[in-house]
Amino acid sequence: MVAAAKHGTIGYGINMYDPWCCYACYDALAMVYLNCTEFTDSGHNDDGMSTKLLKKRMDMGMESSGTTSEECYASNTPYQQTLSYCIKSQCDAEDVPSEKQNQCFQRLNNIGSDGPSLQQSLPPLSPTEQLAEHAEWLNTTMLVNEAYWNSDRGTIEEFETVERDHVAFSIAIMVVSVAVPLLCGAWQFFTSHFLSEVRGLLFQLQSYVVLPALWSKRHSQPLSYRLGYLPSRAMTIWITLYIGLNVLASSVPFRSVQPNTWFTNRSTEMVAYVGNRAGVLSFANMALAILFSGRNNPLLYFSSWDQTTQIIFHRWSARVAIVQAVIHSIVYTADYCYLKGDNVYYAEAAKPYFWWGIIATTAMGLMMGLSALPLRSYAYEIFLVSHIILAIISLVGSWYHVDLRYTKKWGYEVWLYIAFAFWAFDRLTRFARVVYNTIVQRPVARLELVPGTNVAMMTILLKKPSKAGIGQHTYVYFPSFGKAWESHPFTICGWDDQPFKRSANTSTSDLEASGATTPNQEVKNDAATTTRQARSSTSTDERYYVQCLFRSHAGMTAQIHAKLLANSPLHMPVAFEGFYGGHSTSHYVLKQADIVLCVAGGVGTTYASGFARQFARERVLASTSRSQKVVARCQKFVLAWSVREQGLLDHVKRRLLPNLDARDLDDGSMAYKFWVTGQSTAADSAPSSEVTKDETRVGVADGEELVQQQTGRMCVADVVDSVMTPKKRIVVLVCGPGSLSDDVRMEVTKCSRAGYVVHLIEESFSW
């Protein structure tokens, strides 16, 4: 065997043919027969020396009319003396250390350090006769053919250099792809602290690159015919650079070496270089795609990217990996079919490694096709299962493709190790979260319909504080529905971890009004009822909770809605995974904000209500350490919510939003603006005595009503303009339908270009 198994990749732990002078000597003698060579009756194989040598170098093996065993090579004196003299003379000329020469000689002979050394194998007299270029027999000690040695020396040097470049470019792409999210986090930190003091180029970048949609205003809304989503302008720039890096890495630098002892012509040489480059890059991008698909990607904690942004890059890195895999397949198929002939193609295609490559590439192509937005939206559960299965087939197929062909000699499998590690880390972490929450929290869910709507409220009762917070979401499993493996994301809109202790000068009513203390009596009663039905011995005082609102769509939420129509409220055991989101990097701009505007549409209030509760808590509990506050500098908080059903508005006001009549909240620091876009029904007004009229104003501070309600559509431009204040840091949060988010983004961009210091935080689940 020419090269022993090593660790690492080519150029980084593995040297293919080091030193080149030594391996060129080995190649110059690789095709000659010795007096101990055994022959079959098949006759001479006429594939040509170049093809046979390439297969031998890459250890692919082939049928030959003569077989020379390792024992034959080791015991044949002319061969040993010719090889040792060539290595000594050629490598001395290149100043290769003697020890390195000896190691190479023993490695090529497979004799180990206990066998004869290079010095011991040298001939007593220097040979004078040179081996003919196409000689078939070696019967006496000779000089290797100088012309062939020079050609092979250049061939293997260039081939290994190109292979090292494959790895170097792949590492560079991975490093850059990881660095960009971290740089985005640093950018957000810098702009949140210094944007108001810095003008010029940085301010223009924020206004014309970071905030805007790619063109017009469409970003969160899908394209026509649901072809997909357009990334933001900043994300588009990064994706373009990323694709450009891959195109560049796939194209350069390739240099042809002629005459070449491995390839019969320049075309076959370039095909090998391009095909191998595309294959290695595909593996590297495949690992990136898996990294950015994970819920537990460590970059989420250190960058400004949220899950949605991460998924966008996951899709594009996967597309690039798939295209490169297809290029790899096409290039080698064309090489075998058109450059080497049908016989070579059929012989190669019959080998297991070839079939595994076809399986892996086919699975990748199916995975990309079945990920189209229309199919994903129509049957998300089916998409998810098929996506995972096809991804596993792709990885397994890729593994067998390189393992059967190279038997771990050149480290191509290292890229798959990285992909496996990313996938295993995410899956094991998710499993650990579910197991921990199930054992420690003993979660039980109470589900109830919001009267007059197709919205349900889920209260998950817990044994211990959950440490949930603003801007977070969780994945809930419903084993009662027979699909214990399926999870569904829900935004946290309310929680009670009792993180604050009542002080002597803080009344119970103030804390309850701000949402900063234990659940109100209704939630306590829910906890008691659910606990009894779950046959738990835990007292209601030991129960904590998190709350989620969700609208019925297709799939699991439709099944829940159907059960609630028959029996509401409904109690059932659940498992949950999380909590995700709400990382400190996303709070940089909030900590520096003077004014916060939350714009919500429909059940997007689940996101906004958490921030309203947090602001109220920090106002009421003013003694909280400034470092622990999320909106430490905020002087004004405005919630603007457009909702279709009056019943949902009443429910959220009663159960989730702080009461602005409470002490410390009636000074105008908080304000609500509601728009009801649907028609009120009897069902809307039945369950609650808090139903407002078409237009309601509650409380007045500094001449401005604290709570405003009106019918009709929200004018996004007026809402955003109403909070714009010169020399103030303003943060706009938005969560709602794609059209609303796009309108808000457009108006915030206009305000930024007008000179206001404004940041946008968009919560989107366009997965």
From TrEMBL:
Q: Does the keyword Transmembrane apply?
A: yes
Pfam families named in the record: FAD_binding_8, Ferric_reduct, NAD_binding_6
| GO CC aspect terms | plasma membrane
- Specify where the region named Disordered lies, as residue ranges: 505-538
Composition bias type Polar residues, residue spans:
505-522
Q: Which residue ranges run through the membrane?
A: 167-190, 235-254, 274-295, 354-375, 382-402
Q: What GO terms are given for molecular function? A: ferric-chelate reductase activity
Q: Which UniProt keywords apply?
A: Electron transport, Glycoprotein, Ion transport, Membrane, Oxidoreductase, Transmembrane, Transmembrane helix, Transport
InterPro entries, sorted: FAD-bd_8, FAD-bd_FR_type, Fe3_Rdtase_TM_dom, Fe_red_NAD-bd_6, Ferric/Cupric_Reductase, FNR_nucleotide-bd
> Per the database record, which ranges form the FAD-binding FR-type domain?
427-586
Q: Where's it found, cell-wise? A: Membrane
Chief place where the protein resides:
membrane
The record gives the membrane topology as: Multi-pass membrane protein
Q: Where is the composition biased (Low complexity)?
A: 527-538
What biological processes does GO assign it?
A: copper ion import; intracellular iron ion homeostasis; iron ion transport
> What family, per the record?
Belongs to the ferric reductase (FRE) family.
Entry protein name: FAD-binding FR-type domain-containing protein
Q: Which organism is it from?
A: Knufia fluminis
What is the phylogenetic placement of the source species in the record?
A: Eukaryota, Fungi, Dikarya, Ascomycota, Pezizomycotina
